[in-house]
Write a structure and sequence with these properties.
Elements: H1 2-10, H2 12-21, H3 24-38, H4 43-50, E1 54-63, E2 69-80, E3 86-93, H5 98-115, E4 120-127, H6 135-148, E5 158-162, H7 168-182, H8 206-222, E6 230-234, H9 238-249, E7 253-259, E8 262-265, H10 272-282, E9 292-294, H11 296-300, E10 306-309, E11 328-330, H12 341-347, E12 351-353, H13 355-358, H14 361-375, H15 381-406, H16 410-429
Helix pairs in contact: 3-5, 3-16, 5-16, 6-7, 8-9, 8-14, 8-15, 9-10, 14-15, 15-16
The protein binds glutamic acid.
Glutamic acid binds next to β3 and α14.
């Protein structure tokens, strides 16, 4: 930050560039523009796809444990619902803002289109710090947010799920609040619920499993043998920790992991189950002895075969992209690479598996969960995992083929595929006047 502000006074132009580089919506739009050009998208369709269908901002007054009332801001952006009900997670974080939610909602539209899931894209968020809230404060925020979204959410309309700062418990409160309002239990209104109340087997680890699958596929393409490979994982939440665990089960050596407390490096490989058990006990990796302490920046720049950014947006930027040494980047997080970093990574010959493909395992099993809830018949873990693997493999192959066809990166190929599908659907449905 200090450095950033220093440069802010020194060079205004550079600052403007950086500011827009780190605006996720603009980052999304820059890739969208490239793909739209390739597809020679009609100007009207371009405007239509760029603009979110609905943007809702609500204020959430909550009586805190100390008796005082605090007001939080909540968002839900429905980017597009032409392929089906809109789908996407809800994020609780102190720095959530509308542009971020708008980008994340659009990414959900593209993700669902690539995976061939009959959903549109949406995203929600509440500006709050869940680490500083008691369980009852968190519950009140969730219930009041849900109550404000009663005319937005719905099993046929808009279906939330977990994202950063939210979990199964939060989903259970959403499901309960919604059900109380409509006077009957409606499990399919939200996914990522605990299994006992209508959640799906395998949903919790689905995003990590999908990241693992596309990583192994990409390794095969590049002739990297998993059992001889090294991997660094940024972020040790649900996605990062499970990706690390699943990749280590495939024989990959996880040489670096990190969370908000910093990075941990071990050239002979970190014992991932041990790290997961450590975090379960201590909440973070702080004090973890299974590796030498390094910084977050050092973790991204480690000498390794695969880098998995699984923390948050804007981690790989024009500033550090040239220092990345991995051969493959598999984006577990949404938007970890800025648009300005893309050409630098391409120049270096790094294969980037873009977020809208790499982390789509989560929404894929969310779709399975929604199907199971609506039919009232639940699948075995084995069936969930087999179907997930099949859908991820199909999506990877289609994106890969498209990238060869247009001679573009996997990211641009993924955008091309998604935009093509949504715009074709629009053409068939037409614009209702
Ligand atoms: N929040 C996850 C994502 O960004 C999951 C969304 C969902 O399951 O609807 O893909």
């Amino acid at each position: 930050m200090e450095n950033f502000h220093g440069e802010l006074h020194a060079n205004n132009e550079l600052t403007l560039l950086k500011k827009s580089e780190e605006n996720p919506f603009e980052s999304m739009m820059q890739r969208f523009d490239v793909a739209a050009d390739i597809l020679k998208l009609d100007q009207g369709v371009y405007e239509y796809l760029k603009t979110p269908a609905r943007q809702i901002i609500v204020s959430i007054p909550v009586q805190m444990d100390n008796g005082k009332v605090e007001v939080f801001e909540g968002y839900r952006v429905i980017h597009n619902d032409i392929l089906g009900p809109s789908k996407g997670g809800i994020r609780f974080a102190p720095d959530v803002h509308l542009d971020e939610i708008k980008a994340l909602a659009a990414w959900m539209t593209w993700k669902c289109a690539i995976l061939n899931i009959p959903f549109g894209g949406a995203k929600g968020g509440v500006k709050c710090d869940p680490t500083k809230l008691s369980k009852s404060e968190l519950e009140k925020i969730t219930r009041r947010y849900t109550a404000s979204m009663m005319d937005v959410f719905g099993e046929e309309k808009d279906i939330p799920a977990p994202d950063m700062g939210t979990n199964e418990q939060v989903m259970a409160w959403i499901m309960d609040t919604y059900s109380m309002h409509i006077r009957h239990t409606e499990t399919a209104v939200v996914t990522g619920k605990p299994i006992i109340i209508g959640g799906s087997e395998g949903r919790k680890e689905a995003t990590g499993r999908g990241v693992m699958q596309v990583t192994i596929t990409a390794m095969n393409k590049l002739g990297i043998v998993p059992t001889e490979s090294t991997v660094a994982v940024q972020g040790f939440g649900n996605v990062g920790s499970l990706t690390a665990e699943l990749l280590s089960q495939q024989g990959c050596k996880i040489i670096g992991i990190s969370d908000v407390t910093g990075g941990y490096y071990n050239k002979s490989g970190i014992n991932i189950p041990e790290a997961i058990a450590y975090v379960q006990q201590n909440k973070t990796l702080k004090g973890f002895k299974g590796g030498d302490k390094i910084t977050q920046e050092e973790l991204l720049e480690l000498e390794c075969d695969v880098l998995i950014p699984a923390a948050k947006e804007d981690q790989i930027t024009a500033k550090n992209a040239s220092k990345i040494k991995a051969k493959i980047i598999a984006e577990g997080a949404n938007g970890p690479t800025t648009a300005l970093a893309d050409p630098i990574l391409k120049e270096k010959g790094i294969l980037v598996i873009p977020d809208i493909l790499a982390n789509a395992g989560g929404v894929t099993v969310s779709y399975f969960e929604w199907v199971q809830d609506r039919v009232g018949y639940f699948w075995s873990l084995d069936r969930v995992n087999r179907r997930l693997e099949r859908m991820m493999r199909l999506a990877f192959d289609s994106v890969y083929t498209t990238s060869k066809e247009y001679n573009v990166t996997l990211r641009i190929a993924a955008y091309v595929m998604a935009i093509d599908k949504v715009s074709k659907t629009l053409k068939l449905r037409g614009i209702y006047a």
